[in-house]
Each structure stands twice: as C-alpha cells, then as structure tokens.
Amino acid sequence: MADITQQLNTFLVGGAVRDALLNRAAVDKDYVVVGASVEEMLRLGFLQVGKDFPVFLHPKSKQEYALARTEKKAGQGYTGFNCNASPDVTLEEDLLRRDLTINAMAMDEHGKIIDPYNGQVDLKNRVLRHVSQAFIEDPLRVLRVARFAARYHEYGFVIAPETLALMTQLSESGELLSLSGERIWQEMERSLGEKNPEVFFQVLYQCQALKSIWPDLHNLWGIPNPEKWHPEICSGIHTMMVLKQAVLLSDKTTIRFASVCHDLGKSLTEDVKLPSHPGHETAGLPLIETLCSRLRVPSAHKNLALKVCQFHLHLHKVFELKPSTILKLLDQLDVWRKPDEFTDFLLCCQADFTGRLGFESREYRQKDFLFSAYTLLNKITAKPFVEQGLKGFAIKEAIAQQRLHTLTLFKTSYIEEHNMNE
Ligand SMILES: Nc1ccn([C@@H]2O[C@H](COP(=O)(O)OP(=O)(O)OP(=O)(O)O)[C@@H](O)[C@H]2O)c(=O)n1
C-alpha cells in the first residue's frame, strides 16, 4: 500500500539535512509539507501534536511533519507568535524563518538539496550564520547557536561576527530573561553532553548571555586565584579548564555540570581577601541551590554539584586530614549508601586538580588513596560483631572503631609506600 506521504509535497529539513551533508548521523528526521492544510493532514491520518504550530506525527513512522509556515513575533516570550501555515506558504518562506543557514536547507525525495540561503557554502566554510533578522524573534536561539558551536567545534566551526553581534544585542536587550528555566536547562544539558561543552559557556560569556541566564558563573571571569595553585589565575578560565578535564574523564552530564559549579562561591569573595577564597566551598552551596530550582535541574545533577562544591578541598587536602576526619568525610559523602556518586565525586575533584595551567598531566593521588580506603573500609561488616553478641548501637560503635583503626593503619602504610613523608 502506498504511503500517505506520497499524496503530499514533503521535504526533509533542518538538522537531518545538515548532518547528512556533514556525514554525521542525525537523531531526528523532520519534514516540512508544502501546499497542504490541517484538514488534509488529519484526513490522511496524521496525528496533530503541535499546540501552537501545525505539527503532525506520521501514524506509522512517528516522524514529524510540519506544514510550511511563516511566523511573526507578536509579544514577549516563546508563545507570542502569529503563525501562518496556509497552503500558499512556500518552502523558501518556511526556510527563511529558521535560525542558521546550515539549518535552513531542505532535501526533496530525490535527494536534491534546496538551499536558498547558502547553507552549503557556510557548511563548507564552517560558519554558523543566522538566516535573517527573524533570528532575534526567538531568544532561545542564542543558546542554540552556543550549543551548535560546542557540538561542531571539532569540525572547526566558528560563529559569524554578524551573528555574534546579533546574539549580543539580543542578550543585552534582556529578552533572555523571558526564557523558561526548563528550556535553558534543556539546551545546557544537551551542550554538556557534547564533545566541547566549554565552548557553549564561552560563547554565552562572550555574547553577554551568561550574565542573564547564570550570573554567578559569568561573575567568575576576572576573579583571581593564587598563582602557585592556579597559574591560569582567572576563576572563569579555570572553570572551563576543569570542564574540559571532566570531559576527558567521563561522558556523564552530572559530572560535567558539577565541574562547572564547583567554584561558584568564589564569585562572592570579598576583594580584601583575594586572591585566596576562604569559605568559598560553603558560599557556593546556596548559589547552586538557587540555580537548580530556577532551571529545574534534576536532583542527581544538583546533589553531585553540592557535594563537589562543599568537599572538593577536603579531598585535595586528604593527606593532611586526621583519620577520624577522613571517616567523617566519607560519612558526609554518604559513600556507604551511594558508592556511584562517590566515584563521580572523585572524578570531579580530579578534574578540578588537573584543570589548571600546567597541571594537566599531574598525578592526583588523593583520588586513588580515598577510593582504596573506601574499598577497604567497605569490607568491614556487622557480622562478626553480631556473632560476638553485640546489639544495636554497640554494633555501630564497633564498626566505627574498626573503620578508624583500619584507616589509621592504611594511611600510614600508603604514605610510606609512596614516599610522601616529607
Ligand atoms: N528555535 C529554533 C528551533 C528550531 N529551528 C529550526 O527547526 C529545525 C529543527 O529543530 P531541532 O529539531 O530543535 O534542531 P536540529 O537542527 O534538528 O538540531 P539537533 O541535531 O540538535 O536536534 C532546526 O534545524 C531549525 O531549522 C529554528 O529555526 N529555531
């Protein structure tokens, strides 16, 4: 039986065309339909999904088919659009409302590319360029361009100066404040999953968007650190270096997000105390809480970020801590109940340590030490104490004693074995 799309004039559009030309696998396929009406789509069996726009799902393939449309911004925010999806809207008109030239190409059923805004030239020259002034009608596009810059950094893409100027204009107009937290987080989390997420934040910093969407992170640029521990000096640059190191260590966006958050408290250090940052670990906690509730950041991301922020210095200094303090640290990290989060915490601390100019390939023994200590202590169970007839609180006490004893011996032998006495 013939597919219902054969009765329509359909074109593959957007990301699928772009990624096909880049020889990159596309996640979604979006189609645009020219010359059809809502009634015709429904009659053919498509399922309407768009509330604000005439977007449909193919009943079998579940791929997206949208009627060609033009849009005009009518008010503030995302929903303030006047949309015209009448059958006389042309493909070129539909492509004109799109964000970037590389996203404004279409492909017909024979594989022919329709490219009225020179997307192929920009793709070849590795340029992210807006299609028209309609770019500014959707402030989310500032974040999208930053995300594409992060994703395609490895291919050598840069943002066209005139597009960056438009992004700056949009950011400085305050329009970004109308974006919902969910939409910001969606772009941020996707960017964190890309190969060069630091480019996302750098671009947003450069065009002043970070000032609107995450002012505490923006404020880190220009905040100095002691040169001995931070030859790169600037806290913003350090944070980006940490994120790059986190990418080398893990694919998890939880780890990458926590790496970005770990030094936020430094934005609050009083000038007289600079370049040191006493108490920045606790100062950062409410900043993370506020951001996470504003952007509705998932709890796994938030919880790891809070732990890394509060305890990263404890791990850096772990060899200076008494065994009883190390045990307390393990309890505060909730390692006995959350071993996976603990290993993520260790990776974040490693990224913080190696994310400094000239420290990139330095060994971070603290991680190895604390993980080995945890593995050893985790073998201590209640069983022998139960067999001795101990009960309730006495068992807890006995386990704590045994852990302390084991840790004391382990720390001494570790330090000796690694010649770390002086
Ligand atoms: N704010 C937006 C969102 C989307 N689009 C257009 O809609 C297409 C599809 O959007 P989407 O699926 O969100 O993005 P993709 O470009 O497919 O990118 P990704 O690979 O990240 O899904 C884009 O290519 C672009 O032409 C746009 O112009 N402005």
Task: Please give the structural blueprint.
Blueprint (H helix, E strand, L loop, with lengths): L8 E5 L1 H7 L8 E5 L3 H7 L2 E2 L6 E3 L6 E4 L2 E4 L7 E4 L6 H6 L9 E2 L5 E2 L4 H7 L1 E2 L11 H12 L6 E2 L1 H12 L8 H12 L4 H10 L2 H5 L1 H4 L16 H15 L3 H9 L18 H16 L3 H18 L6 H10 L6 H16 L10 H13 L5 H5 L4 H26 L5
Parallel strand pairs: 2-5, 10-11
Antiparallel strand pairs: 1-2, 1-8, 3-4, 4-5, 6-7, 8-9
Q: What's a concise summary of this model?
A:
The chain is α+β, with helices and mostly antiparallel strands and 422 residues long. Helix content is 50%, strand content 8%. The site of cytidine-5'-triphosphate has 13 residues, from helix 5.
Radius of gyration: 27 Å
Stretches where pLDDT is under 50 for at least 5 consecutive residues are none
Helical percentage: 40-55%
The portion of residues forming beta strands comes to: 5-15%
Please give the CATH architecture of the domain at 1-117. 2-Layer Sandwich
Kindly provide the name of the CATH class of the domain at 1-117: Alpha Beta
- Mean pLDDT equals 95
**Roughly how many Å apart are the termini?**
81 Å
Strand order of the largest sheet: 3-4-5-2-1-8-9
Binding site for CTP: 15, 18, 98, 144, 147
Family: Belongs to the tRNA nucleotidyltransferase/poly(A) polymerase family. Bacterial CCA-adding enzyme type 1 subfamily.
Binding site for ATP: 15, 18, 98, 144, 147
Protein name: Multifunctional CCA protein
